[in-house]
Amino acid sequence: MSTHTPKPTTQSHRWTEIVAGASSFMATAYIIVVNPAVLSQAGLPFAAVLTATVLVSFFSSLMMGLYARNPILVAPGMGLNAFFTFSVVLGMHVPWAVALGAVFWAGIIFLLLSVFNIRTHIVKAIPLPLRYAITGGIGLFIALIGFVNAGFIVHHPATVIGAGKLNPSLIVFLFGLFVTGWFITRNLKGAVLLGMLATTLVACTLGRVWGGDVPVVTWKGFFAAPDFSLLFSLDLVHSLSWALAPVIFSFVFTGMFDGLSTFVALSEAAQLVDEQGEPRNIKKSLITDAASTTLAGLFGSSPGTAYIESAVGIEAGGRTGLTAITGGLLFLPFLFLSPLLTAIPAVATAPALVLVGAYMIRPVVKIQWLKMEEAIPAFLAMVLIPFSYSITQGIVWGFLSWTILKLANGKHKEISIALWIIDVFAIVALTLE
Predict the structure, then answer these.
(1) How far apart are CA 386 and CA 354, in angstroms?
(2) Distance set, CA 335 to CA 37, 49, 199, 339 (Å)
(3) What would the pLDDT profile of 114-145 be if each residue is shown by its tens digit?
(4) Which residue in 95, 101, 53, 94 sits closest to 305, CA to CA?
(5) Phi and psi at residue 168, in whole multiples of 5°?
(6) Can you tell me the distance from the alpha carbon of 296 to that of 35, in angstroms, rounded to the nearest whole number?
(7) Structure confidence by residue, pLDDT tens digits, 11-68
(8) Which residues does residue 161 pair with via DSSP β-bridges, in sequence order?
(9) Which of 99, 333, 362, 407 lies at a 20 to 30 A Cα distance from 153?
């Protein structure tokens, strides 16, 4: 596999990459405060988790840029932090130090699978129609997250979900959506970043004047000292007990396929592929992803993973490691300046997430929709990702339905050994849900 990565050759290209990195960071920065909010419910100190989150995001994204040379940010994953808190610590009554140990050992397994190219072979075993469908499904998932963050889509007791009522906050979101869309259609450099800044400014202004549901920027100061109390507080011994084996497996399976699907989706959407059509520098990217989970256990956080919000920076023109380096460096000051994040409300990043969905849905036109034995698995993978609010559920049922329909049509030779192995792990993962 070729590991050649085009480097920016002009000042203009470098500026594009830097703006793209800032755009990805702004779309991802919420994790700095959201991850501690989730993990603190498991008994971990909020300030210490915030410090761990920043450190994991900084080192992992920097490694992605310098080592794997891909424009993808890496940080503690949403979903994985909820599993850590509500399933492992609160549900199974596992002490959080032991759970951190399980995260560390899952990272070690990731590293072994990545170093020996097993994860790369798994990527190659994913049929192309499923790759395209996963890309589109993640695009829909990102858009759904944006709509929910904006209050455009809300829970409804009768219809499960419904449209939110028009209110000042929603008006701010719609302003940001159409202004950012206009910037993009005009091919304006830094369109996504400018859209987020414009939306933040409008939200701040209307929040002061109009009030009501518009998010008002509430300053909590500029400086907060880092808390390193969680560093190396994991329990490596008790986390290796047989009782924790299902927990480690769940971290491995969920993290593996969340990461794999994100790399495949972003690479497919941005054409970051090598001469064989495989994701660019995939082995190094997966090693970085694995190292992030290992670091998370050591620093005091739930597993790290590649971030689908990196699509915001890719849409802004990010194509090289400089994008990830820029995003990673922007995490570091928030060891001390985390209160400043209150200046960027969710309604300001929501339009970018929604518009990224339009960007990532493009590859689904490559699926042969009239060839139903491939169209059905692709459709299931694509729609179950947003409908179940889980990337893992989408890809599991995509894999299983692909195998079942190929077998039913007497085409077992089209099922690779690697895909059979994936199916076995998918079934095990479903039994652990």
Answers:
(1) 13
(2) 16, 11, 26, 10
(3) 888 887 777 777 888 988 888 788 788 878 88
(4) 53
(5) -55, -40
(6) 12
(7) 778 899 999 999 899 888 878 877 887 898 899 998 899 999 999 999 999 999 999 9
(8) 155
(9) 362
